Description:
Structural class: mainly alpha
Low-confidence stretches: 235-242
Mean pLDDT: 78
Distance between the termini: 125 Å
Radius of gyration: 61 Å
Largest sheet: none
Order of helices and strands: HHHH
Amino acid sequence: MSAWGKIFTAIRGGANEAAEAIADGQSMRILDQEIRDAEQSLRQARSDLAGIMASNKTVMRRIEENRAKEAKDTDSARAAIAAGRTDLAQGLAQRIATIRGELQRDQAELDQLLPRQQQMLRAIQDTEARITQMKREVENVKANEALLKAQSALAHSQSGINTRLGSAVDSLERIKKRQEATAGRIAAGAELAALENGNDLDRQLLEAGIGGSNQSADDILAQLMSPSSVDPLSLPGQKKSD
């Protein structure tokens, strides 16, 4: 296949795919229209059948009338023969022949119309059954389509809810972390404040001469020069050893 042939084939394939996509998208509308077309054809078939049945009745009535005429003319011809009127019998015989010809033609027509009538009647009955079945299937398809749309909408809504819930959970986690960080800063500040308060208290104790252990050089020199000092290097607050 040439390059142009392949391109043309690809274009036709794309057109067919597009047509099928459009047909699938309008499937319910197409089905409804096809059913309406079938019902219109069925109405036309019923009208044709009614015409055939009317023709059959006309032919059957004509056959009955001709048979009655034949029987009457036959009786009259026999009476004419019995009366010696062969001329009348000859005329009646000619008319009987004409009637019998008409009977043959009408019977042949009826033999053709009756099978056609039965055939059309069966076709109409089959078509009616198929249309009824098709309507039932279309209703089921419509119900399933509505159910699928509802389920799809519910799934989409559920997906949106899950997304929003996920965002809410993320927001809650961020809030919790921010609260934990804030609580940590508050606790750290409290600890720092406690340390600062403790240092200030120690300073105040030293200034009051309570619990202090630091000695100046003058204090140590005075202790060394004191004759009563047994352990001149002992620190204030320590007991002298015996």
